[in-house]
Amino acid sequence: MASSWRRTIGNLRSFVGNSMGGVRGGANLASWVVAGTLAYYLWVKPSQDLKREQEVQSFIHLLFDCYQF
After folding, report:
1. Which residue has the higher pLDDT, 29 or 56?
2. Contact at 8 Å (CB) between 61 and 53?
3. pTM for this structure?
4. How much is the average pLDDT of 12-25?
């Protein structure tokens, strides 16, 4: 019984390892950190900054519209 779940865990680890390119250990972790950092600075952060800037601009327009009347 104990070997069954250990084999299942081992198979799952092998599947995950193979699906990520077969690189194991520190090199695998380092490559994921680099990829995640690049993705954040190239896609996530610019879209968050644009959204924040649009919110500030809409707030400024709303503020000036209130004082026109």
Report:
1. 56
2. no
3. 0.52
4. 73
